[in-house]
Amino acid sequence: MSMFTILFVNFISAVGITIVAPILGIAGQIFEVDQGYAMWLMTGFMMAYASFMPMIGRMSDNFGRKKGFIASASIFSFGLLLSFLSNDFNIVILGRMIQGFGAGGILPVANAMAVELYQDSKGKALALVNATYGLGVVVGVNLGGIIYDHLGWKWMFIVPFILTLIVIPIAVSFLKETLKFKKHEAIDYIGSILFAVAIISFMFMMKYLAVAPFFSPEVLIPMIGMVISFILFVIRELKVENPVIDIKDFKNPSFLIYSLIAFFFGFSMFLFVTFLPSFTQTLLGYGVSESVYAIDPFAIAMIFFVMLGGILIKRFGARKSMVIGALLFSIFSYLFVKMVDDGPSFYIYSILLASGLGISMTPMNYVIMEEGGKEKQGVSAGIASVMRSLGGIVGPTIAGIIIANVDFSSIFVMDNLIEAYMKIFSISFYSTLIQVALSILGLFAFRKILIKGGIRNEKI
Prior knowledge:
The protein is mainly alpha-helical.
């Protein structure tokens, strides 16, 4: 029952991320606000989601997984209810931010609990968590479109709220506490706030970079804020006794390498997931609903290969599995760019693309949590998720700049758009090459450490 509860809550939180995706293009009309402000339905969620993950992970390391998990689910539930009850768009956005704060605690704590519940099959347990997360992301997009068409936007929040209302009492009654030794150390709230300010400033900088010149005040002000808050954050974390993120962990080559892999993985993954639907609208002439459903085979294949990734970890070890996944992701990213020119080729190569993406997802989390140490698995899982989310911000922002530079007045606008999409997917391919290089580096760096220590372990 514990694992079912973890997976179900994780699934619902993932649904909450993307359930508004189908209405983002028309949200300005729905809520009668500027379309740029309407995008805060997603921006507000992601801002809170990424900003407080390490802090919530650290709190679960200190005070217990069960408390952290239930508190995060309850906060997420309250945010859903708030967005449902209000007709004021500002309150709806506030609700989305609260949802992001709660969801930001669910995934890292779910990863930590899964590992602690199944010590002998950690790879498979992490794969289950990641697979249900991926399934939730896909279901959220599809469910959101169906709910909006038949019931209206308010029900996009109340349906997941009802589900959380059912599962939270189950978690209270049946969820097992997996953390054996609670430390009750002080939480570095000032460091958490500085980290959140750095992330928020970064998001604003990337947001305006897509529409304003680099040296404009809209870009420079958040950039300066990001640099200052990040420097202050690092200084503080090096001084305090119980940092929210232990900067010294990044001196560990494996921890640093696989954190960077998580960033570039997020970069590539979110480029494909975000732009494949609109790419089908341009290449295949699909409508909005058809384009959403067009990526379902890709998503289903990804979930299958996430589970396969867990099996590969058991067979070959996390580091070798990461190399396999990164190589497949890179090869099929290249083939996608070179070979896709019609419907059949799109479906074939998007499914192949999902193989590398899915296999890669679990090993990086596994290594980061392993290298962070058993006493910090919650915060380590949070760092992995933050790095992936940051990559997911940078990639689509760069893609947005490319799309913004398309000449829509040209008679060759469709050809220009297809060329722009191929540039976006080519950039994603270059990102996968970096993942391959880093995963090979991580494998040999770890092998070198083992040999120096006189240890032989084939599953590395």
